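Researcher: Hi, I'm a grad student and pretty new to this. My advisor asked me to get structures for two proteins we've been looking at. I'm not sure of the right format, so I'll just paste the first sequence and hope you can take it from there.
Model: That works fine. Here's the first sequence with its structure tokens right after it:
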Amino acid sequence: MAQTCAKLESNAVVVGIDVSKDHLDAAQYPSGDLIQTSNDTKGLRTLLRWIGRQRAVHVIFEATGPFHRQLESHLAKASIPFSRINPRHARKFAEATGKLAKTDRVDAVMLAKMGALLEPRTSDICNEQQSALQELAAARRNLIRDRTALLNRQQNLQLSLLKRLTRYRLRQIEAQIAAIDQAISELISTDGSLSRKRAILVSIPGIGETTAAMLIFLNWEHWKMDRLLRSQVWLLSQDSQESGRVKSFIRDDRIHVRNTLYMPALVAMRHNPDLPSI
């Protein structure tokens, strides 16, 4: 999850790869060469041979959940630097350059151009613990979404059968969330570095064990979190939220971080009177 800064060589060939479940579409910049391979071991070997013909190369691809993991692993083993970027950022770049069509090959070419022009930071491969945290955190977010949707629908239900089934499903979801929280806690406890991060995060007023675990997954350090929490508390405490400066600051941070910090910010605002005035 961590990223390191690395300047692309001036003559580096940038390879953009569009990742899907079954295929990998790759494009080179500036040559424009294209290749499509299967997203499996055989296809990845073919892709790496194609990439390996270049003396200096940097690979760009979007984070696509489980579909990019094998690609990432093969690139790391071959010592090929890569950048794993947010799909939303890639889409915004495409819109800014007027590329509104969306096909696998078009996306691969767009990613290669994005890498050449913006020179994104080099990403590190996720280790086994980080991958497990990613899966658990993604599953937890999906359950939270399901719970919210059910609670909203529950208000409009009239039939007793549907009400009973909804209550049953809500209990299931709560049990599954609790099981995931327990698994995340145990996973963090097995790693000394992650345990120390959790201890620092929970020392910040308003942040509990569950929030700390989510923030560890999102790879935010405690000093960033303290600053963002204070800003969010200040925003929530204002009668008017029309300040362009504050809204811009909040918008620039990751959506999952903001969502994770919403309730802690409310708690901190109500129980730590010093924060809103900071």
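Researcher: Oh nice, that was easy. Here's the second one.
Model: And its structure:
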Amino acid sequence: MPEITTSLHTPTWYARPAARAWTCTPAPDHVRAFHAALPGYAPTPLTELPALAAELGVGRVFVKDESSRLGLPAFKALGASWAVHRIVAERPPGTRLRLITATDGNHGRAVARMARLAGQRAHVFVPRGVHPAALAAIAAEGAQVTGVAGTYDDAVRRATDAAAAPDAVLVQDTAWPGYERIPGWIVEGYATLFAEVDEQLAAAGAGTPGLVAVPVGVGSLAQAAVTHYRGRAAGRAPALLSVEPETAACVLHSLLRGEPVSVTTGETPMAGLNCGTPSALAWPRLRDGLDAAVAVTDADGARAARALATHGVPAGPCGAASLAGVRAALTGPDADARRAALSLDPSATVVLLSTEGTAANPYAAEQAGRGV
């Protein structure tokens, strides 16, 4: 896979309006029933923020607040719970497994929690740059935690090697040729989030959104978004915008090149998005189904987090990335051209996915304390 080095001088925007006409097979409809039967399940809030609608020049803005999902402070519990359920269900009762994964924080904690609830063990590999408090939260779930002196991609390689043991199963939310089944289950798990959004928008009289903004790491949540909105049998399709940090914009650069590329990542408070290689399973759907992609700075993300906090939404840096991305797309120089590329009119409804709360990312508290 080609590798490139990111810099502040590389492009930060991509658009493909033809994506709105592309369609795909929809997600299975039984995952929501599985989640609904779990102890503590409840739909996460969809909060309307009129002040942001006025700022962005659109009709309505809603934020899907994933700061508390199945007892964890991020959306990742949806994918981990469904994948662990499928893995355990295939084994004879009483089988003891080691569920192994690599993480920038939230996915690893979710796998550790679901492994513990299923009576299994977890081993989590963590790259450099992850906050010590995030490591402690994973360990508190009963997982073995191994630090890796390298990037997220390096941690994935270490986890893959460890999963070669007879009692081990890799539970990774990125895919590559030959490893696609379990990442596919994780993506299926995220379908519950979008089913909730549909119901909540209908209850608010908002109908189908004109734009949905999705923070992106390896692209699995964005894959779920594309599958949901491009798998519909009828109705107007929304524009889908992926948002990444400038220091780890692997999906944006892949879209610009027209093929998957790996990027050299730096460090960013958006730790859960600090991924250098798109998921091989996600890539075809992102290539064909995303309308646009944007990269944002850490400062953009920090400002967005402060804005959401002002409106009562406790978004961590990854969660706030969606607002930072929509601000970059809809305001400032070239905003008119970008709105046109998104086919976004002044009455449109915009949905921002806030994928983690402040409790999920210790950098959020540090930024607030420094006034960043």
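Researcher: Is there anything I should tell my advisor about the second?
Model: You could mention this: Confidence is low (pLDDT under 50) at residues 4-9, 367-372.
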